[in-house]
Amino acid sequence: MGQRARLPRARTQPGAPARHRRAAGPARGQRDGGHAPGAPPHAGTGAAVKGHLRVLVWYRAAAEADIAGGHAEIARSLAGVPGMVSAELHRSRTDPESFLVISEWSDRESFDRWERGTEHKGQTSPLRPYLDRTRALPYEIHEVVG
């Protein structure tokens, strides 16, 4: 293992507590940080980057395995797609049959290019049967503004 680089300390007001920042990476006990295969190391850290897009897609399934397998397959097929930053699978704590995939894109143009492309439908097909049709729209697209 290499040495950890030391960052300069931020100046603080006298008497103010020093602020420490933990380096982004896997949580204790996690080997891959929960990142999609092929995702960059910062994926899933929650760091908001202005101008990035977050695409939220809701699914319903009785078993987590139904969704997890399809999500892993999609994540593998999206690895290396220009502009794709990360894809995370979430399960509702209040409704165990509700799942949410949050994908992050570096910019609107990259997402639009992929969505209009010929591979889009095939790449997302493993989860299509599980789209949450009880919602007005099973997806939302958000731009990070701050």
UniProtKB/TrEMBL annotation:
SUPFAM superfamilies: Dimeric alpha+beta barrel. Residues 47-141 form the ABM domain. Gene3D superfamilies: 3.30.70.100. Residues 1-46 are annotated as: Disordered. It comes from the Bacteria. InterPro entries: ABM_dom, Dimeric_a/b-barrel. It holds the Pfam family ABM. This is ABM domain-containing protein.
